[in-house]
Amino acid sequence: MKKQNLVVVGGGSTYTIGMIMSLVAEKEQFPLKSITFYDTNAERQEKIAKASEIILREKYPELENFSYTTNKEEALTDADFVFVQIRTGGLAMREQDEQIPLRHGAVGQETCGPGGMAYGLRSIGDMIDLVNDIRHFSPNAWILNYTNPAAIVAEALRREFPDDKKLLNICDMPAAIMVSYAGILGKDVFDLVPEYFGLNHFGWFTSILDKDGVDHTDTIKRAITEDGFIPEDAEIANDPSWIKTFKQVEQMVTDFPEYLPNTYLQYYLYPSQMVEKEEPDNTRARQVINGREKRVHSLADQIIADDTTENVELEVDIHGRYMIRVAASMAYNNGDIFIVMVENNGTIANLPDDAMVEVPSVITNRGPKPFSVGYISTFYKGLIEGQLAYEKLVVDAYYENSYEKALQALTLNRTVIDAPRARKILDDMIDANKNYWPELHASKQALN
Ligand code: G6P
Ligand code: MN
């Protein structure tokens, strides 16, 4: 097996150590020659990189080279794979994305509704620059992108790089949900075969099979409604917020038992409940700052101080394993099946060809080949079309510098609905994002 040169963009991310552990666990499936971290924040990256260096020295001695840099040429030259996980504006801006809508009684969430729009308008420019940089230094590298809000980022990259066949947007949420299904069934997550359709953070499992073709969907539905549903992946299993989110799946399956929902649908189907349970001074960003970020940084500090991993517990998570298995399927033409984002082109028969949809696909050295979904019924089609229009309008607003498109996007999002509320949220977000967003202007036809 050819050994790969891997670049991790966003080396300072709180997910990176989990990714390193996953690379160690998956070294037989995805053997590496080198790992390079790239980040724009030298200090944040250094701590994670120094800890990673020790982990790799102990657990991946066959790796020929590990390095980290803030220099793009150094980082991006000669890459075979580039894993991208960047957060423009950091957790500080995530907190704004969550708090501003809540002030106006709307859902405050990283990727859903107004928060998703704000984050999208910040991420698009950086992602376009990054893909251009990667293509300049490594024209043939596979780019696997986790950057959020993935639906909006994927739509912008589709428009910007229509002919780039080696750029793939993925999300670990369907896989993280499948880890819990696997727990219910007593199976390994990679032995389950999903049937699924939707947009990113907006989809449904229509069935869960195993590799022998046995259908386990009803068993899973019954278990969820009778025994409840809990996160089981190491990264989220003990997190109170994720425990609440998985619990909400019970409600969704009770109300809408036809399919198994992505957890993110809670924000669109129960927006009032979601607003009620939020504490504006302790939204998810704050919880992550005080939780995962502190935990990962003190873990890194300890590894560095001890110069060994002997005194710490390190876990493998689905976030890392999922991306690595997708990469392995590309590198070695495995033909495994993963839920990824692709341009629709008839996959979901009654949605537009130019929608970025999230569906199971066979992954080979030629990229993803989606399985046909066919026609979807009215409830799902209606929900998806509204959400898709919002996503497209956000990207239109970016390219056209259009205030009006942004207002339209928010007004038609299920988490907002009310035009005056949409306007208030938008105006506050413009203020909060002046260092990040393109300038938005009212259209020429606007009435005075
Ligand atoms: C899942 C989603 C990601 C999202 C993350 C947020 O993994 O797929 O898109 O960024 O959850 O998790 P957090 O713990 O930061 O709220
Ligand atoms: Mn996601």
TrEMBL record:
Q: Where are the transmembrane segments?
A: 6-25
The protein's required cofactors: NAD(+)
User: Which of UniProt's keywords are assigned here?
Assistant: Glycosidase, Hydrolase, Manganese, Membrane, Metal-binding, NAD, Transmembrane, Transmembrane helix
From what superkingdom does this record's organism come?
A: Bacteria
- Which InterPro entries has this protein been placed in? GlycHydrolase_4_CS (IPR019802), Glyco_hydro_4 (IPR001088), Glyco_hydro_4_C (IPR022616), Lactate_DH/Glyco_Ohase_4_C (IPR015955), NAD(P)-bd_dom_sf (IPR036291)
Recorded hits in Pfam families, A to Z, give: Glyco_hydro_4, Glyco_hydro_4C
Keyword NAD carried by entry: yes
Q: Which PROSITE patterns match?
A: GLYCOSYL_HYDROL_F4
Q: Which SUPFAM superfamilies match?
A: LDH C-terminal domain-like, NAD(P)-binding Rossmann-fold domains
How is the cofactor bound, as the UniProt entry phrases it? Answer: Binds 1 NAD(+) per subunit.
Tell me which CDD domains the record gives.
Answer: GH4_GlvA_pagL_like (cd05298)
Where the record annotates domain Glycosyl hydrolase family 4 C-terminal, the positions are: 196-416
Family according to the record: Belongs to the glycosyl hydrolase 4 family.
Q: What is this protein called?
A: 6-phospho-alpha-glucosidase
What organism is the protein native to? Halobacillus campisalis
